[in-house]
Amino acid sequence: AIPAAIGNSATQINVFISGNLASFVDGGRTWLATADRLYQLPLGLIGVAIGIALLPKLSSAIASEDRGQEQASMDEALVLSMALTLPAAAAIMAMPLFLIDGLFTRGEFLAFDAENTARALLQFGWGVPAFVLIRVLAPGFFARQDTKTPMVFALVSVAVNAALAILLFNIGWGVSGIAAATSTAAWVNAGLLGFTLFRRDHYRPGPSAVSRLIRVLIASAALGAVLVLAQMYRPMIEAPIAALTEHGAKEIALILTTGVGGLVYLVLLFVTRAVTIGEIKGLLRRERRA
């Protein structure tokens, strides 16, 4: 249990280190903690849930030496997690200030705070897929009763995070440098997990999974482009709303923008055939039988 606990807690250890380093800047801990709330959302809703669901399914397949089911379980978890995570990462990177300002700028949280928090959130954004991948790939080791390897990789990522955060912070990146170090450490951890599974021939994404991941990436990139435009033309989005209501224009604009973005992404998923109507119907039939 101890190696597994350490392996699963690397992200939280990195956040703890980052928070303490940010305390050297007035307001730094607040900026980092506020950005942390948004990037932890896909990790908690997607990564943890899929990781928990995958482990018993994968353990059963390994115990029965069913390589087909083992491959299918990992492929499904990988594609599903990225289909839900990549658009979140795209949104975070495309419009960090729109998100932070709409959600938090009021009272003592000023525009200055929103700008600095948005810089940190941008750096967290490109690390979001790695945070989730760690939760998806680690069960590939736990299902084989190997808790030591993920622990070692987690400790490596903690060391990378600490060293890089101190370096970037001291060369002038400030709080955004701390966030960049956390994302880099997550990718190091995820990369080591994925490479080791590949090298040991425990898991290699199938051609269908790779194809679908590419299409999910294309759909997410297109969504990101749409949201970049929304960030650029934010005043034009908020202006007609402000004319209708005295308060809440930026909040309503944010809700509308994210809602439209979500619909755009769903359409792109079907257009690129990353997800098909038949797969949705099959999933619904499985849910009804369950």
Q: Which helices and strands occur, and which strands form pairs?
A:
Elements: H1 2-8, H2 10-22, H3 28-63, H4 67-94, H5 96-104, H6 111-125, H7 128-137, H8 139-142, H9 148-199, H10 207-232, H11 234-244, H12 249-271, H13 277-289
Helix pairs in contact: 1-9, 2-3, 2-9, 3-4, 3-6, 3-7, 4-6, 4-7, 4-10, 5-6, 5-12, 6-9, 7-9, 10-12, 11-12
Summarize the structure.
It contains 13 helices and no strands. It has 290 residues and is mainly alpha-helical.
Explained architecture:
The chain has 290 residues and is mainly α. Helix content is 85%, strand content 0%. It contains 13 helices and no strands. Helix 1 crosses helix 9 (148-199), helix 3 (28-63) packs parallel to helix 7 (128-137) and helix 4 (67-94) packs antiparallel against helix 7 (128-137). It is flat, with a radius of gyration of 20 Å. It starts with a helix and ends with a helix.
